[in-house]
Amino acid sequence: MVDIAQVTTVAALRQAVAAWRNAGQRVALVPTMGALHKGHLSLVELARSRADRIVVSIFVNPTQFAPNEDFARYPRVLEQDTAQLAGASADLVYAPPVEVMYPDGFATTVSLGGPATAGLDDVVRPTHFAGVATVVSKLFIQAMPDVAVFGEKDYQQLKVITRMVHDLDLPVEIVPAPTLRESDGLALSSRNRYLSTEERALAPAISRVLIESARRLRAGEPVATVAAEGRQTLAAEGFEVDYLEARHADTLASVSGTAEGPLRLLAAARLGRTRLIDNMAV
């Protein structure tokens, strides 16, 4: 028997959180779309170091998928996820159905600028971050956590959420968690299960190219040259490249040289039907 509570309504979530708050406990939220792996569990571990109680939300958010994306086939394995979270000592699973998050007549979204319009994932997925920001803002209002943990693998998302919390004065501390990787360097992702055997063998090239590009940038090579040659290398390896760019690590603004501030390399590329994203500090 899985020893972890699970709720599906806002009222039940708030009742649980209120009891913890009345006991003087800090609450952390780890938002996920389920299909959990070791990377997600590391977020729970980090949350445990920052709070007394951990809520993990599991919700495959339809508003962040474009019509041609993988919403219908995105893996949904709630029972397995719940068992993993019990083993990771999370306290509560919040798994609302779509009609709880988006009831009839729902008509409000979050409007974004800054990192959400940086010319990276927002070019390929123009409605994505509005969907992310809307659902995350709802989760924050529903759970009222002290802390929320987000992985650095989705780096643009992390910066979008961080900006939103700052701009809207939301009383939530955003804690970034380092990217976990397989032994060959591939960043852990729920979508890795889509890769064929041949594609899985090719996939680590994206992290190798980022490592080499970061090394070259630290050595003083031109940003535009390094990024262009990184894209060419990935294309030669069989990737369909959406982008590989060096950007300011905080704002995601374009840069022309390494002297313009801390840099972050960000990449997104497809192997077959699977879209992979990764990033690396310079």
Automatic annotation (TrEMBL):
- The EC number(s) this enzyme carries: 6.3.2.1
Active-site residues are 40 (proton donor)
The UniProt entry, under Pfam families, shows: Pantoate_ligase
EC class (word): ligase
Q: Which residues bind ATP?
A: 33-40, 151-154, 180, 188-191
On whether Cytoplasm is a keyword of this UniProt record, the answer is yes
GO MF annotations in UniProt: ATP binding; pantoate-beta-alanine ligase activity
Q: Name one GO cellular component term.
A: cytosol
What domain of life?
A: Bacteria
**In what pathway does it function?**
Cofactor biosynthesis; (R)-pantothenate biosynthesis; (R)-pantothenate from (R)-pantoate and beta-alanine: step 1/1
Q: Where does (R)-pantoate bind?
A: 64, 157
| Record field: catalytic activity | (R)-pantoate + beta-alanine + ATP = (R)-pantothenate + AMP + diphosphate + H(+)
According to its UniProt record, where is this protein located?
Answer: Cytoplasm
Please name the HAMAP family in this protein's record: PanC
**Per the similarity annotation, which family is this?**
Belongs to the pantothenate synthetase family.
Its name, as the record gives it, is Pantothenate synthetase
